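User: Predict the complex with magnesium ion.
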Amino acid sequence: MIEVKNAKKTYGEGPTRVEALAGVSMKLDPGAFSFIVGPSGSGKTTLLDILGALMHPTSGEVYIDGKRLSDFDDYQLALFRRDRIGFVFQSFNLLPALTAIENVLVPVYPEGVTEESRQKAAKLLMELGLADRINHRPAELSGGERQRVAVARALINDPVVVLADEPTGNLDSRTGNMLFAYMRNLNKEHGVTFVVVTHDTEYITKDDHVFLIKDGKITKHDHEKILKGHGRKKRPRGIHASRTST
Ligand SMILES: Nc1ncnc2c1ncn2[C@@H]1O[C@H](COP(=O)(O)OP(=O)(O)OP(=O)(O)O)[C@@H](O)[C@H]1O
Ligand SMILES: [Mg+2]
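Assistant: Here is the predicted structure with magnesium ion placed in the model:
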């Protein structure tokens, strides 16, 4: 379904030029649960933005069901993002003036919010442990609660592919486990394809696909070694908290 061929991405020009992706090729198998791992600044968010058509690569191509993304017009791109992709941003990108449920409903606004969509949003928030935070604004929520609002918003349109950037970055291990169990269930029961950027490698299992990215390139990795690394001493929670919090 989504394939990236030799994607390069540079930011800035002259002395501030950064090559964030230095030629990445990858294929997402439908129904797979995939992880993108790698050091800070290695290009994970950039790659996710490209997979979700939020950004075009500087060079290289992205194919959706065999069609070149660069041939899509703005309308087709918007439809693709709205109907097929659920995006969980590393920095949440919640709208501060809206309540939790209103934020979850943002992707529905173009068609108009119905009683049915309101109930669906409330159900998602409830399932993510936020039943009593539905009418709170982002400033009245903890980082982990905001993160789960962002997850609910990504799921409101029943996406085929969920791209999640550090979805457990602000969660304690109990809530993180709960969120992963929820995502695994969507993957198994409903065939939703997941791509998760994470530093929490303990969530990776044997059958998952792993893309290790270093200096903007996908590099070979030893799956067993990543799985074995689970016993390592864990970093303190919140260390990778995003730069902005709404
Ligand atoms: N908008 C931007 N303008 C200029 N440089 C950028 C921009 N966004 C990212 N970069 C740079 O591109 C490189 C890759 O950034 P990216 O956000 O993809 O990394 P990452 O792997 O997601 O890191 P982290 O784990 O810290 O979230 C970094 O060196 C970063 O400083
Ligand atoms: Mg990132």
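Residues 5 and 61 are 5 Å apart (CA to CA).
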